[in-house]
Each structure stands twice: as C-alpha cells, then as structure tokens.
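Give me structure tokens for this 171-residue protein.
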Amino acid sequence: MGVIALLSAVLMLVIREPMRVALALITTMVMLGGIYGLLGVHFIAAFQVLIYVGAVMVFMVYVIMLLEVREAPGHARYSRWLVPGVMACATLVAVLGISVYRSSAEVLTAPGGAPFSLTQFSTLFLSEYWLEFELTSVFLVAVIVAALAVIKVSRRAQSSTQGSTEGRANG
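Here you go.
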C-alpha cells in the first residue's frame, strides 16, 4: 500500500491533466487510509476515507468538472516538473530508508509522554483544534465560490469575444 501511495503521489506531481491528478490524489488518500487501518487506527482510517476521499475530493472533482479544463492537442503529456519531481521522490525515499534503517521500534507516544489512545486524540481534537477544522470547511466553500466566479467571468469573456468576432465577420 505504501508503494502505491508513493507512486500515485509522484504521479500527482508529473501529470498535467487535472482530472487524472485528482484521481491520483484519491488513490493516495485511499492507500493512506489503508495504511492507517493496517496500523490499527481504524477510526482515523475511516475518517481519512470518509472525509477526505468522500467529501473533499468530491468537491475538487466537481470544481474541475465545472472549470471544463481541456488540454489542447499537441501539448506535452507530462509536466515540466517531471525530472525535479522524480529527483525529489528519490531523495524522499532515500531519507525515509535511512531513517528506518537507523531507528528502532518505538511505541507511539503523545506529547505528554503517555501512549497514544483514541480517547486522548478525540478529546484534544474536539477541545483545541475544532476551530481549525471548521475554518477548513469554510475555506473549501470559499474555494468553490471563487471557482464558480472564475467560470462566470471566463464564459462572459468568451461570449463577448465570439460576439465581436461574429460582428466583424458579418459587417
């Protein structure tokens, strides 16, 4: 699962078509949820899949579909960031490999030094980080409204240029 998550994350950096990038991101998030499940943190795994894949990515795919982004024929299939992305991925894999090789198996501990528990996470999340969570949802709604505004302006500009071109051709 980790290899698939890493490969789809690299694909997000190098693919140019927005819908395919979104599908690679969805794959990465699903695999990350699977990794959480394998680690035994099933509650976080369910949140990962339900909230990020089920809600956030639905918004992103919806915005991509509303923008109607299409590649013109003859454009490069991959981004110009392909080589730097592959080099960054290789660096990341090397750093992770070195850190895994040097580290010993340790028990996950919370900032207070106590072992990690779902109750502790839930209490901390709902008492201290609820505002950030809500601001994220407001931010996502604002992004969708901005995308709709961009679409409206873009369509007006297209219709006005088509109208002036037709007027010159007829006159």
